[in-house]
From TrEMBL:
UniProt source species: Dorea ammoniilytica
Listed cofactors: Mg(2+)
Keywords from the UniProt entry: Hydrolase, Magnesium, Metal-binding
The keyword Magnesium belongs to this UniProt entry's keyword annotation: yes
Protein name from the UniProt record: HAD family hydrolase
Lineage: Bacteria, Bacillati, Bacillota, Clostridia, Lachnospirales
Keyword Transport: no
GO terms of molecular function: hydrolase activity
PANTHER family according to UniProt: GLYCERALDEHYDE 3-PHOSPHATE PHOSPHATASE (PTHR46470:SF2), N-ACYLNEURAMINATE-9-PHOSPHATASE (PTHR46470)
Length: 238
């Protein structure tokens, strides 16, 4: 029986494309003959691929931002100056101040909060991640003590310690824990290694491993996630 549900933040509770769309509209719209959504999917690929350099202190956030937009455009034969790339990064960060939960996600959290303990496990800089959590208004659904940010700790996903910490804090068993996240490597593999139940929020349509898949369930969006949780926890969503 599931007694606690923990979420990733970026591209799980909200779509990171919200901030990308703002920066794109301001700086890139009309410059290139390519779909914004196509560009974002590649942008997200590079973001996931190189973010560990920032987490490890090898690159600055600006360096990560420049690299990912330059290489995103470059993959489609499009050029981008370093000046434009840096400006895009700054506007992307700016628009993160305006991220929001979808109405479906709000309804889902409302349905969950009186049935299970809710929490967050997220990788990233402490100030930035706590800022996003505050912007999203997550205190409405969960206690601050159930929010775990790798920047406050000495380990990060997929290290099993970041999953065992909230489990032990709550005094629960692994089979009573559920984790929902968008990264197969960091979220699904990490949570499954800790013995947790898992749901993969696969917004970008990544290939699903055919063997030894670490995701117990895979959903493409908030609506499908809500349906899955209602089935698992026997919640009437109507």
């Amino acid at each position: 029986m599931i007694k606690a549900v923990f979420f990733d933040v970026d591209d799980t509770l909200y779509s990171q494309q919200q901030a990308f769309n703002g920066a794109y509209k301001e700086l890139l719209e009309g410059k290139y003959e390519i779909s914004r959504d196509v560009l974002y999917k590649r942008f997200k690929y590079y973001s996931d691929d190189i973010y560990h350099y920032y987490m490890d202190g090898e690159w600055t956030l600006d360096e990560v931002g420049i690299y990912r937009i330059v290489h995103t455009l470059g993959d489609y034969g499009l050029s981008c100056t370093e000046e434009l790339a840096l400006e895009f990064q700054h506007r992307y960060v700016y628009y993160q101040q305006y991220i929001y939960l979808s109405e479906t996600t709000k309804n889902m959290l409302d349905a969950l909060k009186d049935r299970v303990t809710l929490g967050i496990i997220t990788n990233g800089n402490s100030k930035r991640q706590h800022g996003k959590i505050q912007t999203l208004g997550m205190e409405r659904w969960m206690d601050e003590k159930n929010i775990f940010v790798s920047g406050d700790l000495e380990f990060a996903k997929p290290d099993t310690r970041i999953f065992l910490l909230p489990q032990n804090t709550l005094g629960l068993k692994a089979e009573e824990m559920l984790y929902i996240g968008d990264s197969y490597e960091h979220d699904m593999q990490g949570a499954k290694a800790a013995g947790w139940n898992t749901i993969w929020m696969n917004r970008r349509g990544h290939d699903i491993p055919e063997e030894d898949c670490c995701a117990d369930r895979v959903v493409p969006n908030e609506e499908a996630l809500f349906q899955q949780l209602c089935q698992m926890l026997k919640i009437n969503s109507r």
